[in-house]
Amino acid sequence: MKKIWLFILPLIAFVAMTVFLLSGLFSDPRYQNEVQQDRALPPFKLADVMQPAKQYDESLFHGQVTLLNVWGVWCVTCAVELPFLTQLKEQGIPIVGLYYEQELDPDFGGKSLPQIQSEITQQLSKLGNPYQINLFDQDRSYSMDLGVTGAPETFIIDKQGIIRLHHIGDVNQRVWQNKIAPVYQQWVNQ
Hints:
Belongs to the thioredoxin family. DsbE subfamily. The protein is an alpha+beta fold and 190 residues long. The protein has helices at 2-25, 30-36, 76-90, 113-127, 141-146, 173-188, and strands at 39-40, 45-48, 55-57, 66-71, 95-99, 133-136, 153-157, 162-168. It has an eight-stranded mixed beta sheet. Strand 4 (66-71), helix 3 and strand 5 (95-99) form a beta-alpha-beta unit. The model is unreliable at 30-35 (pLDDT under 50).
């Protein structure tokens, strides 16, 4: 009887692990995106990366429909979308950046704040600066609260601070016209 269990237990563990891995393989990654929509923006208290003495909270998003764009200088796709986002800013669309630094690690250190600020200044002066404010998500906890899986990601926040759209990937002319602009206009007109 013991020999049977020595065979059955590893088999059960193998089958359970296979089912678990296959469920992840065939799950829809957009499900998380849908979960993030139509809920209040999680509360936060974050500093402006360029002016750390200035602190902001979720009231920053009350009163106007705003794009919240998660980005970093290390992100190649973010660099590609900066010129287009700058065009949107020039059209009067308010955009707040949520700066996500990949190289900060609580155990191993990383870049200093002046280093990060210098890199941001260089990139934005070269590619365009679409941001009214750049919030600094130093420990990435707010990105996790938002359900961010990487960068770039863009949210539409309505006048009451409710997330109305969560877009994963870059914002370009096609994405803006077909996906983001209709939702943005809908909430501007409300």
